[in-house]
Amino acid sequence: MTVREEMAARAEKRKAASRKAKQTAMAAARALKPEQTFDEAAAQAEFADLDSRALTVWMIGCRKAPSGHVGGAMMLNSDWLKAEQASLALSGINVEIAENPLKKGEFALVRSV
Questions:
Q1: pTM
Q2: Which listed residue, of 29, 48, 74, 91, carries a Cα 20 to 30 Å from 40's Cα?
């Protein structure tokens, strides 16, 4: 066996061991984390409740938009929601930031119950 063939064989063994370790880790993670089924009807009902109390439109939290809180400069939607929540709290209006149960990553300000 030449040196190149020997090195290639060792590399193949390392790759196989790495693949096996990754598969074992993934199987262990699946065993620890039970599968949660998505209940469409419950999510629809929760969305209807949240949407009826919403004070703002549903917005993606990681996008930037112009804001009056920072003089018209660009601000993350998630930061804007927090600033708006604080300003409404000063006015005595209790609101909370809620995540859309049907579309993860979308948020809105809703009246507290």
A1: 0.60
A2: 29
57-95 residue pLDDT tens? 999 888 887 877 777 788 888 888 999 999 999 999 999
Question: Which residue do the tokens 């096996």 mark?
Answer: 20
3-state secondary structure of 11: helix
53 burial via Cβ count (<10 Å: 0-12, 13-18, 19+)? middle
Q: CB count, 10 Å around CB of 18?
A: 10
Question: From CA 3, how far away is CA 23, in angstroms rounded?
Answer: 30
Annotated domain spans of the chain = 1-36, 40-111
